[in-house]
Each structure stands twice: as C-alpha cells, then as structure tokens.
Design brief:
By secondary structure, the chain is mainly β. It is about 10% helix and about 30% strand. The protein has two domains: about 5-75, no CATH class; about 95-155, no CATH class. It comes from Ruegeria halocynthiae.
Length: about 160
C-alpha cells in the first residue's frame, strides 16, 4: 500500500497569504469555471464560481536540473487536506491517463520509471515503480499538460 500526499497545509497557507510561487511571483486569483481546476490540497475540483489561486509550483526542496515547475490550482478559501489512506482522490478519477515518475532520495528522476499510465492501471503502475529500491517517491502529473497532481510515498 502507498500513500497519496497532497500539498502540505502550511505551504498552501503561505500561498494563500501571497507567498511567492516557484517563479517568485505572488499567486494569481481567478474564478473557477467548475471544470478542470483541481485543488492540490484537498484533491477535489474547485466548484464553479469559487475563487482559486493559480501559481507555478516546484514540488522539490531546491532548484536543480530535474526540479520541474508547472502551474497548479488551489482553493482560495481554506479546505481540508486530502488524507484518505485507502481511496483515490476525486482529482485522479477523470483523466484517461496520468504521467508518473519515480524520484530518488536526492529528488532526481530515477531513469526508466517515467510512464504514461491509464487511470485504471495506475495502482499497478505505481507498484511496479516502487519495486525499484532506489525510488523514494513518485509524482503524478497530467499526461496532457504535465501539471503536478500529487505525490505518492511508500507506506
């Protein structure tokens, strides 16, 4: 069993207070149209008409050649962090495919782990990547836009 981890609440709170994003800019504010705006904290879709933050996120502790940065959405209002240990979050149930990649404890891509996995086979694909002992965690990204969704840690 593996654990899907949403962005930490402390980090999301700093973004909500205007902390700079992965490119040094304050998060932008926008109104959700109700489709395709997944919050990376609650891992639910931001309802139509609700305010959201749009920002560049780098889910790595420091810059380095493998530290990808990309756009994400967050609920502008406080939301509960996704904590379900057994289920699949709402934001990982609607796309046909996801890009998943394993990373080592040095936060660099472990070559040979990046694949486009069909949603129905995501659990199996994650288990196959974690067979490799040098994989510390996995990122789930959009297969179409490369947007960061969440992180999967060894349980």
């Amino acid at each position: 069993m593996h654990k899907i981890s949403a962005l930490p609440t402390e980090q999301v709170q700093t973004y909500r207070m205007g902390a700079p994003d992965g490119y040094g800019n304050p998060p932008e504010r926008a109104i959700s149209d109700g489709g395709g705006n997944p919050c990376r904290h609650c891992l639910k879709y931001i309802p139509a008409g609700k305010e959201m933050l749009v920002l560049a996120h780098r889910p790595f502790p420091e810059t380095q050649p493998y530290a990808e940065t990309g756009p994400i959405f967050l609920c502008a209002e406080p939301c509960a962090r996704y904590e379900d240990k057994d289920g699949v979050p709402e934001t990982l149930t609607d796309s046909a495919n996801y890009l998943i990649k394993g990373y080592g404890s040095d936060n660099r891509i472990v070559y040979g782990t990046g694949i486009i996995a069909p949603q129905a086979q995501l659990t199996e694909a994650v288990a196959n990547i974690f067979i490799r002992p040098n994989v510390a965690y996995i990122h789930i990204r959009s297969a179409l836009n490369n947007c960061y969704h969440s992180r999967i840690d060894r349980a």
